[in-house]
Amino acid sequence: LLTLAQERKIKVGRFGLFDADEAIIAHTNENEFERFVSNKAYEALHNRVLLIKVPYNLTVTQEIRTYEKMMNLGGQTLGKHIAPNTLKVAAMFGVGTRLVRDAKFSIKEKLTLYDGKELPDVQQREINRVRELARKQGEGFQGISPRHILDALSYAMASDKEPCVTPTAMLRAIRESFEQHITQVKNQDLLEALKATHELYDEAAKNEIQRAFVDSFQDAAQLLYDNYLEHAEARIMHATVKDPVTGEEVEPNEKILQDLEKALGISDAAATAFRQEMVNKSGAMARRGQTLGWDAHPKMKEAIEKKLFADVANLVKVTTSTKVLNDQQKNRVMEVKRRLIDDMGYCEHCSQELLDYVGYLLTK
After folding, report:
1. Domain ranges of the chain
2. Comparing C-alpha atoms, which of 51, 24, 26, 20 is closest to residue 37?
C-alpha cells in the first residue's frame, strides 16, 4: 500500500504496471489515532493522512436512533420491556454531557433547541449563533459515548428487582455507572447533565399522566386550536363566524381567545400581535399545502396544554398522590392505566411506577 501511495503504480499479475491512485477511508477513536501518530514506524504514512474530526451526535432524537440501531430494539430486549421515555432519558443525559455551557441557554434549553424544538421568543438566528460559538469551543468532542450509555442500560436491564426498564431505573443506572467508571468528563458536567435530564423527564412524566387523564387529548387539543384560529382570524378581519349549533353568523367569541391568552400571561395590549402571529403562521403553512398542528407553535402548545390540563389538574393530584382512594377514584386510575398500557406503550409495572412517580412530584 505504501509503495502504491509513493509511486502511484501497481503491478497486476502477468500484466505490466498500471497507473493508480489510492485512497483509504478508515475511522478510529481519538486515543487510537494519537497512538498511531506517536508510532515512529508509521512516519511515512503520517504526512499522507488527512484527518477529519467527527463530533458526537448532539440531538436527542438521533441519539435514540443510534441506541435502537446498536441494540436492534423491537420493543422487547433480553426478555425485558423498555418503558416509553427510557431511551430518551438515556439520550438526554448522553447528549447533555457533550454540550458546551452557554451564558444565555442552560443545558436543558440547549437539549430542547438542538433537537429541533422551539422555545418561546428564541429565533433561529440565535440558535445558529449559539451553535457556531459552541462549535468553535469544541462542542461534541467531549462527553459520554453511546457505548457507555448502552453499558448503563445493560446494567439496568440486568437488575432482577424490576420486570422492565423504566426511566427512573435508567436514571439510577446512569448515576451509579458514571460515578464509578467515567473519569474523562468533569464530574460537575456530569451532574449538570443529570440535573437537566431529571428536569426534562419530570416534565415529560407529568405530561404523560395528564394526557392519559384527558379523553382523546390530541383531538381535543386540535379542536381547541382550530377554534382559536377561526375566532382570531375573524377578529382580525372584522368578520363573523358560524355558530356550530345554530348555524348563524355571529361575532367572534372574545372569551375563547382570552382563555388561551391568559393561560400564557399575554396582556390585552399584546393580544392582537399574538393573534396576528398565529394566523400568519397558519396561513403560511396552508399556502404550502400543509396543516399547522396544535403543538407546532411552542406558545400555543403551552397555552392549550394549560387549558386542557387545568380541568383535570386537581384530579391528577388527588388520584396519584392519595394512598387511600374511593371507588370513583380507583375506577379513574384504572382507566388511566388502561390508556397508558393500550395506547401509550406502558406495561402494568411501568404504568404503576409512572403514576407513583408523578404522585410524588405533585406532593413535593
Report:
1. 2-46, 60-186, 217-309
2. 51
